Amino acid sequence: MYTLLKKEKRARRGRFETPHGTIETPVFMNVGTLGVIKGAVSSMDLKEIGCQVELSNTYHLHLRPGDKLVNKMGGLHRFMNWDGPILTDSGGFQVFSLAKIRKIKEEGVYFSSHIDGSRIFMGPEESMRIQSHLGSTIAMAFDECIELPAEREYVERSVERTTRWLVRSKNEIDRLNAQENTINKKQMLFGINQGGTYEDIRIRHAKEIAKMDLDGYAIGGLAVGETHEEMYRTLDAVVPHLPEDKPIYLMGVGTPENILESVERGVDFFDCVLPARNGRHGHVFTARGKINLNNKRFEMDEKPIDEGCQCPACRHYTRGYIRHLFKAKEMLALRLCVLHNLYFYNKLMEDIRRAIDEDRFHEFKAQKLADWSRGQEPHIEK
């Protein structure tokens, strides 16, 4: 159940009760596609860096180690030793990302495995069964993530099919939750709004799926090639037509700037591979903007990655040492930078929640954007 605790204009501060614990929103979900954060980050580390929700991927876990194996091991929570909420993506994004090796039909999508080329079929029922096997807290409905730009006629047909797939997803998850051997009989379902950058299609679809009284609603098909301005314009159009008493999730977004802009427009949930991916390449976020630790100017830098940061990397190591680890190709470099970046994102969300609680989100946003863009002295939250 979602409780709206506070609003500052359109920015929302909420609390979402789930079978695996309470989520304070706005929240950033730490992405562990295969049930692990890339960069040697453990589930115990996630607790230390303030992660509230871990996100894994249905398609990838279906291929390896296999959802049936995970089910026999007691479900994804037990398998990866994480007792907090887990959201599983439906596999629908792979409809977009694997465009060259898939074929979409009414019954679902035919894939060729990116691992060994074997034939795979996934439709709404298959996606729900896999997610039920995994026992995640929140399952995402199966949809088509549309490639942009897209012709209006195709977008309309795709959205209509996504709506039909949502009905099938809901019917199947209701059936699975009622079965005796289901691991998580209270598994939640989020529907996904699609429509490209066509505002009228987005709004029509939002109104239609809002009638289904789902546990939450996601906005998909953004951050896939459109400009930031197009994304924000789409959010301005669609968010007011989604239920205010349910969490709103913007899929695959994004940069710290994207998050601030989207919170201002009423978004509650975020996820993105960006902080972990950037960290694995030495690109780290700081209160003064992003820096690249591979640069020679950090060779003898005795400062932590970000002064004032309380992440495990900043508490114990210097920029110069971490740069040395990258040059020596030591795994510890990746681990420390991924831990730092995820801590940065989780702390940013904590600070956003506090700012909304204290009716100063808009001032907070303006200060953060100024600090990041101009490299001023950091504005540290006390």
TrEMBL record:
UniProt EC number: 2.4.2.29
Catalytic-site annotation from UniProt: D89, D271
Top EC class of this enzyme: transferase
Keywords: Glycosyltransferase, Metal-binding, Queuosine biosynthesis, Transferase, tRNA processing, Zinc
Record Pfam families: TGT
Pathway: tRNA modification; tRNA-queuosine biosynthesis
GO MF annotation: an example: tRNA-guanosine(34) queuine transglycosylase activity
UniProt domain tRNA-guanine(15) transglycosylase-like: residue ranges: 10-372
GO terms under biological process: tRNA queuosine(34) biosynthetic process
Cofactor, free-text remark: Binds 1 zinc ion per subunit.
Region (RNA binding): 252-258, 276-280
Record-listed Zn(2+) binding positions: C309, C311, C314, H340
Domain of life: Bacteria
Recorded catalytic activity of this chain's protein: 7-aminomethyl-7-carbaguanine + guanosine(34) in tRNA = 7-aminomethyl-7-carbaguanosine(34) in tRNA + guanine
Cofactor: Zn(2+)
Binding residues for substrate: D89, S90, G91, G92, F93, D143, Q194, G221
Function, in words: Catalyzes the base-exchange of a guanine (G) residue with the queuine precursor 7-aminomethyl-7-deazaguanine (PreQ1) at position 34 (anticodon wobble position) in tRNAs with GU(N) anticodons (tRNA-Asp, -Asn, -His and -Tyr). Catalysis occurs through a double-displacement mechanism. The nucleophile active site attacks the C1' of nucleotide 34 to detach the guanine base from the RNA, forming a covalent enzyme-RNA intermediate. The proton acceptor active site deprotonates the incoming PreQ1, allowing a nucleophilic attack on the C1' of the ribose to form the product.
Complex and partners: Homodimer. Within each dimer, one monomer is responsible for RNA recognition and catalysis, while the other monomer binds to the replacement base PreQ1.
Protein name (database record): Queuine tRNA-ribosyltransferase
